[in-house]
Specification:
327 residues, alpha/beta, TIM Barrel, 3-stranded antiparallel beta sheet, globular
C-alpha cells in the first residue's frame, strides 16, 4: 500500500501564557504528520519537548528520516523499531492508527479492544506564580472539580495553601516538575497532607529520585519525567504509586497501551497526561481514560483557540473524539 507523508509545523497561542518550574511559553508549537492513501487520510500530532532533548527541527528531521519506509507501507510495529520513544514516533504512530480506522471503517477504540469510551473529567492546570497570583487564577477556574497546580520549590507551601483556600471544594493535584530537593520532602508532604492534595507529580529530578523509596508517601506520588515507556518501569516500584502516561513520551498510542498494561500488572495507578497541544493530540489519549485514576487532557483548554474540528469540552468533561477529529 502506497502512502504519501506530509509533515507540518503549526502554532497555537496559549491563553495568558503557561509557566512551570523550567520556564514559560506563550504558544504551543506542534508537529503534525499526515498520511494519505487513495481512499483515506490519517493524522497524528506531537509536541517536541526540550526537556527530552527535542526541538521542532529534530522531530521533523526524525520523521523525514523514515519517510521511505513510512510511504512504503511500514506497520505500527515496524515504526516502533524505526524510531525511539518520543514525539516523532508519536505523530507517526497516531497517524497510522487514524489511517487504519479511516480505511477500515472501524473506530480506533474498537481496534484497541474498547467497546466504548465515556466522557472523562480532566484536571485543569494553573501555571506557576506567586501564591497571590495562583489564588487569583482560581477565580477563573475554581468551579472546576480537579485543579492541577504547577509548583517550583521555594514558596510552594504558601502556594499550596493559597490555592486550597481559594478552591476549598476542588480536588488538588500538585506538579513540581522535578523542582523539589530530598531534604524538603517532609515539609512539602506535610503541606500537601494539610491541603488534602490527592497526588504529587514528579517531586524530584528523574534519575535522582531514590529518596522517595525511603520516606512515608502520605500523599500518593506519580512519576512523570521518570517514566517514558516500559523500559525501567519495574525499577520505579519502590518510589512511585502512579505513573503519568503521555503519548509524546511513550512514542505513540501503541506503546502507551502496552505501558498501561504493564503498569497495572505491577500495581501502579494510571494518570493520563498531555503536553500543551490541540485536540488532535488529546484524542488518541482518550483511549486510555477508562483505566485511569486521574486524567489531565486540558491542553486545548489552555489555548486561545483549538483546531477545528476539535474535541467537545463541557466544563471539565472531555468527550471522546468523533471520527472527523481522529480515529
Amino acid at each position: 500500500m502506497q502512502r504519501a507523508l506530509s509533515v507540518s509545523v503549526e502554532r497555537f497561542p496559549i491563553a495568558g501564557g503557561f509557566v512551570i518550574s523550567r520556564g514559560a511559553k506563550t504558544e504551543a508549537v506542534v508537529v503534525v504528520a499526515e498520511l494519505r492513501t487513495a481512499d483515506a487520510r490519517g493524522r497524528g500530532e506531537c509536541v517536541p519537548y526540550a526537556r527530552y532533548g527535542e526541538s521542532v527541527e529534530s522531530v521533523v528531521a526524525a520523521i523525514e528520516s523514515v519517510r521511505g519506509e513510512i510511504e512504503g507501507g511500514a506497520t505500527r510495529a515496524r515504526v516502533q523499531q524505526l524510531l525511539p520513544a518520543g514525539a516523532a514516533r508519536n505523530a507517526l504512530d497516531c497517524a497510522l492508527w487514524d489511517l487504519e480506522a479511516k480505511r477500515s471503517g472501524r473506530r480506533a477504540h474498537l481496534a484497541a479492544g474498547l467497546d466504548r469510551i465515556a466522557p472523562a473529567t480532566t484536571a485543569f492546570t494553573l501555571s506557576l506564580g506567586t501564591p497571590e497570583a495562583m489564588a487569583a487564577a482560581v477565580a477563573h477556574a475554581g468551579h472546576r472539580p480537579v485543579l492541577k497546580i504547577k509548583l517550583g520549590g521555594e514558596g510552594d507551601v504558601a502556594r499550596i495553601a493559597a490555592v486550597r483556600a481559594a478552591a476549598p471544594e476542588a480536588a488538588l493535584i500538585v506538579d513540581a516538575n522535578e523542582a523539589w530537593a530530598p531534604e524538603d520532602l517532609p515539609e512539602y508532604f506535610a503541606a500537601c497532607r494539610a491541603a488534602d492534595v490527592r497526588l504529587i507529580e514528579q517531586p524530584l529530578p528523574a534519575g535522582a529520585d531514590s529518596a522517595l523509596a525511603h520516606i512515608a508517601r502520605t500523599t500518593p506520588v506519580c512519576a512523570d519525567e521518570s517514566v517514558h515507556d516500559r523500559a525501567g518501569l519495574a525499577a520505579l516500584k519502590d518510589r512511585y504509586d502512579c505513573i503519568n502516561i503521555k503519548l509524546d513520551k511513550t512514542g505513540g498510542l501503541t506503546e502507551a497501551l502496552a505501558l498501561a498494561h504493564e503498569a497495572e500488572r505491577l500495581g501502579f495507578g494510571l494518570f493520563v497526561g498531555c503536553m500543551v497541544g490541540t485536540s488532535l493530540a488529546m484524542a488518541p489519549a482518550m483511549l486510555l481514560t477508562p483505566r485511569a485514576r486521574f486524567v489531565d487532557l486540558d491542553g486545548p483548554l489552555l489555548l486561545s483557540q483549538d483546531r477545528t474540528p476539535g474535541l467537545r469540552y463541557d466544563g471539565s468533561l472531555v468527550y471522546p473524539p468523533s471520527s472527523e477529529v481522529w480515529g
